[in-house]
């Protein structure tokens, strides 16, 4: 202690300054030495020590990636450094094959987990950001067991029909007396709609977020339910729009620009987790009560998702699994269910909202597409605009499906999908060490003129003949072992929504000149889409 005191006592400000400067210079030299001697050097922006590419913090991520793709993506591979992490960006369909196959577990992880996943209790919870292979496998198996059978039933369509009717009535209610239609921000309404949908699908309970939003628009007195409902919607939106901060390296957590954002998101997630756990515990008690009373129906294939998750791998499981690794044949804890429910709300709401809004934007800008869409609706539903939509009807809506795919090709809401290697591998003809992070740049591949003629043109007919589509040149739901678990439900939802909307309303953009307003975090979000909805007269669907 005495020696340390003597040393420190003899140190003046200049010495401290010189010491710090030496440390910083040594780090910068070390950083650039590592950078210029890296394995498989590819073109890309020159990184700044600790920060990597500053542009990612200053520009919209999607717009920045699009620009980089034009600058560096010509040969199908380039690289970036984000907050000190090297990322290899792939823009050719031929190079992503290994990430999209279902065998092996070499490319199963999505992130390096050197960020703050643990702090948010996401590193071994749920599915989407789960970094722990064993826990991910267990959660994925049970989530899949619960959601896939649902998409084979009319349950999602029935909920969607009921919710669409409700929403259409609010829209008509909001119409000004002398106006021929209602002007609404579709992106906000769709967020409330998908929230109500996912809640009904997962818990069987209506949280009335559309109703509360409508009350708010009509300036009705604010009630406790309205506040709670808006808070829940805000928590989901905040997580969707601000979650990149979770991937900032731990070492940067205390920085003045980082700390408040992390604390804000932590507080947000805390409230969301508490709400979800409250819902789960309540449902568990309800199930226990119905079992005691002999009222629990194990034969039904139409349990809501939450009930399926609670009874999975118990004697009340309606889809008992055999021939599986015994370590994943156990029931889930409340915390594990919370992780999966969190995924359903976070991964299952905004993705659909944005795809739907982008589709409307393109349909309104392409009268020929709108005409064919209306003709298909007319053919399938004849002149009955009220008949509830069934799975059978959805099967027939081929052009609607092509519109959804073409929208996702040209403007994917998930424009980047990452994979992290846990062992050395050969990708794009190069040998890579373990722990390399790859980004499949979906928007670049989906719009690459190598695979698509006139890629910038909106032509749904491209998807009529799937054999003509180059392998891996279109991705909406990713692929391989981590492929989207909600893909079937999402397609049901999008098709039902588009058909229901155009059966009942004519849709016009309020500003046809304005580009679509987007903001990117891990997904590309439609920030605003102001539309005018004009109720259709009977038999008017063709125009
Ligand atoms: C249009 C709507 C949707 C789009 C475009 C979409 C897209 C995606 C994509 C690209 C992935 C990553 C796949 C990969 O890494 O290969 C993903 C993962 C996932 N999605 Fe979706 N999704 C949509 C709707 C939904 C819905 C409705 C749900 C649930 C109700 C859902 C649940 C999930 C989950 C849980 C994962 C993580 C799977 C894993 O990591 O194992 N998604 N989604």
Commentary on this structure:
With 543 residues, the chain is of the alpha+beta class. 48% of the residues lie in helices and 10% in strands. The chain has one domain (92-535): Orthogonal Bundle (Cytochrome p450), CATH 1.10.630. α7 (155-174) runs antiparallel to α8 (186-203).
Quick synopsis:
This protein has 543 residues and is an alpha+beta fold. The protein is built from 19 helices and 11 strands.
Count helical runs: 19
Rounded to the nearest angstrom, the radius of gyration is 26 Å
Q: How many domains is the backbone divided into?
A: 1
Give the termini distance in whole angstroms: 87 Å
Report the structural category.
alpha+beta
CATH topology title: Cytochrome p450
Q: What would the average pLDDT be, to the nearest integer?
A: 90
- What's the helical proportion of residues? 40-55%
Oligomer: single chain
Bound molecules: protoporphyrin IX containing FE
Descriptors:
four-stranded mixed β-sheet; three-stranded antiparallel β-sheet; binds protoporphyrin IX containing FE; single chain; 543 residues; 10% strand; Cytochrome p450; 48% helix
